[in-house]
Amino acid sequence: MPQNDHSPTPQAPRLTRLAPTPSGFLHAGNLLSFAATFALSLRLNANILLRIDDLDRDRLRPEYVADIFDTLEFMDIPWHQGPRSPDDFYTHWSQSLRTESYNSLLNSLREGSHVFACDCSRSQLLNGIYPGTCRHKNIPLDQPGVAWRLKTNPDARIAIRSLGPAIPPMSLPPSMYDFVVRKKNGDPAYQLASVADDLHFGITHAVRGNDLLPSSLGQLYLASLLPPNGFADTIFWHHPLLEGPSGHKLSKSAGDTSIRHMRAQGLSPADICTAIARMSDPHATPQSARELGDWFVQQQRVA
Ligand SMILES: [Zn+2]
Q: From ligand 1's centre to the CA of 201, what distance in Å?
């Protein structure tokens, strides 16, 4: 991996992260978020952790894991901690190796009576919102095939530290009411694993799309129920999502915006960075991931 002019400060106490999920090829929106993380890490004197979220084994494909390394190297986006290659990832960094840490948080929630068992199917949700069906059913937590849900309080105000303009304390959005912390198959759910990992690695700054603001609120809520920890000190930046030419949110399903596809068409890293910036600014000319990140951070007036 190239280190050249952006090698880390050895004792930098700040740590941010790139946290891709290997459930698709990286797309322009991912790259913009990574570039912003890179640019901010330089301004904050923070190191970068590469954390690949591979809990969802059903959606993981080896080519998606390989694509993460290929893309970061091609785009010259550095990271200072985390796996150096797919093999290193599977052997030393997979989330499946941190089961103990996830179970320890789950046990702590259980001991504090913060969870209840739920045997509802997805179809029992109302427009994606859990109506509290099993809260008072007292289903044993050890019953096979039940999910564990967090007992959430819709009136609780959650403080969130933010880069840039302050965000007032907010309550959980309905999509996060009684959210799942342990899946029916016994695996930790995304929100729980994300908190456990951020605490484990000591993440101080998290950059993510504003579609993940509900997740951040849920994670802060969850962390407040655990033994004393530093999660509430995490500084977040929820950035706007990149929009395609027609104003649609870009997604992994949009194959033509995958970085892999752009490379296959012969675009250089500079071409790709310029093309991404020009989706929202016809005059932007970033020539590298670092310049793309700087352009975005300035455009959003965050730092
Ligand atoms: Zn239920």
A: 33
